[in-house]
TrEMBL record:
Protein name (database record): AB hydrolase-1 domain-containing protein
Molecular function GO labels: carboxylic ester hydrolase activity
Residue ranges of domain AB hydrolase-1 in the record: 135-393
Gene3D superfamilies listed in its UniProt record: alpha/beta hydrolase
Family matches, as InterPro entries: AB_hydrolase_1, AB_hydrolase_Est10, AB_hydrolase_fold
SUPFAM superfamilies found in the cross-reference section: alpha/beta-Hydrolases
Lineage, uppermost ranks: Bacteria, Pseudomonadati, Pseudomonadota, Alphaproteobacteria, Sphingomonadales
């Protein structure tokens, strides 16, 4: 889960919702676009539902992709694609025709403080079998627009959920400057919630928020003020951003085979780098000099990356002391944000979906803290998916230690939609689901 505090001369790809899948998408980007007259949109039959959409991976270069509710995804035109256009109609492999699932989209501009933000309400047309929920989609750390550029809302709408999406301030058609200040972003969520309720008046019965990745910090901050009746978080963290960096470092070292002795030393390193970043480059320099002197010759020390620790260790002391006025950028991240204190104020049902092998947002401490809150009686459900990385993407481990990403894990999209619909239809793939502890 990338927070934008990186060395300007480094190219980092850890921003946005689905970092692990980025490599797969880029690898697929060269495939020819074999498409006749089939349109973008939502298509399905009695057995499966798919969303077909365009995605811009490079400026001016768009490819047509698909994602099924069951997690399969790919690029149209790929020889192994599970979806293809035949005689003007989308068909699956083995061949089965899909019909279009209609939605109604309403574009709007709404105010958040002094800013105008651009939003869109997406509503299913078909008669709902269950109480229609309305959900505000709370984005992650990406600096790209959400309206018309995310398939998540369409996957939810395909399952009967009304979804309101909007461009984060400073992106797309929204005014303002891009920021990762959680409190500012939460105020935008509150404004989006009011606009969503206004547009959907009389056409929904339950209202909630969905936050993915960095949205797992923002949505809880907005939940009470927005009047949310439920909260769904995908691959988020119950950690401060400083703790996130530290956990990434420890996770890297564990996967490299290092034991608790090295992890104990690494904790001294992350305390030093965390103090520098958390103080916005005003303190912690002496401690950093000390850990460099103690561990600089160790192999494990040279391999550290984390969210920002690797950048701090490689920077010059002069660059560090110049801080955000010099070689570093800080997009307003609240580095010492306390998510546990926020969650203790929320009494509505919550679902937290966790990727068991998340490299961008390691979830071990998050699981422990959520379990503790469950034990205290908070109405929190957790779902842990094995063999998944950030974004709930499954992977194959390659001999060199890298990962080849395949698909979204089966059951994930159904689970979050069913939670919004207030129904249960297990099993949800391989999820290890822990329900709230009853009094």
């Amino acid at each position: 889960m990338k927070t934008d505090m990186s060395y300007r001369h480094l190219v980092r790809l850890k921003a946005g919702f689905f970092l692990p899948f980025f490599g797969l998408l880029m690898a697929c980007a060269h495939h020819p676009q074999v498409r006749a007259s089939c349109d973008l949109g939502i298509y399905g039959n009695e057995r499966e539902i798919a969303v077909v959409y365009d995605r811009e991976m490079e400026p001016g270069e768009r490819t047509t992709r698909y994602t099924f509710v069951d997690g399969r995804r790919g690029v149209i035109g790929d020889a192994e694609a599970a979806l293809q256009c035949v005689d003007g109609q989308w068909q699956t492999t083995p061949r089965a025709a899909l019909r279009e699932i209609q939605t109604v989209e309403t574009d709007t501009v709404f105010r958040s403080g002094e800013l105008n933000l651009a939003g869109r309400l997406i509503e299913p047309v078909r008669e709902a079998d269950h109480a229609r929920p309305l959900v505000v989609f709370v984005h992650g750390s990406e600096s790209t627009p959400t309206v018309g550029n995310s398939y998540y809302p369409l996957l939810l709408a395909a399952q009967g959920v009304s979804v309101f999406v909007y461009d984060k301030r400073g992106t797309g058609q929204s005014e303002g400057s891009y920021t990762q200040n959680f409190e500012l972003l939460a105020s935008d969520v509150v404004a989006a919630a009011a606009e969503a309720r206004r547009l959907a008046t009389g056409r929904y019965e339950r209202f909630g928020l969905f936050g993915g990745s960095q949205g797992g910090w923002v949505a809880p901050l907005a939940a009470n003020r927005a009047g949310a009746e439920f909260l769904v978080i995908g691959f988020g963290l119950v950690l401060s951003p400083l703790e996130e960096d530290a956990e990434q470092v420890y996770d890297e070292l564990r996967r490299a085979g290092y034991g608790e002795d090295v992890l104990a030393d690494a904790r001294a390193v992350t305390r030093a780098t965390g103090e520098i970043v958390g103080s916005h480059f005003t303190s912690g320099f002496e401690a950093l000099v000390e850990v460099k002197a103690r561990f600089g010759g160790e192999v494990w020390f040279q391999s550290i990356e984390g969210e920002f620790t690797g950048d701090i260790l490689r920077a010059s002391e002069t660059g560090l002391r110049r801080g955000v006025a010099g070689d570093f950028e800080d997009s307003g991240v609240l580095w010492r944000h306390d998510p546990i204190a926020v969650l203790r104020t929320i009494t509505v049902p919550q679902l937290w979906v966790i990727a068991a092998n998340d490299t961008a947002a390691p979830g071990l401490v998050t699981q422990e803290r959520l379990a503790s809150l469950q034990a205290e009686g908070f109405p929190i459900t957790t779902a842990l998916y094995p063999n998944t990385d950030h974004g709930m993407v499954e992977f194959e481990q390659l001999p060199d230690g890298s990962r080849r990403y395949t698909q979204f894990t089966e059951g994930y999209f159904r689970l979050i939609a069913d939670t919004m619909l207030d129904i249960r239809s297990p099993p949800y793939g391989r999820a290890d689901i822990r329900m709230p502890i009853e009094d």
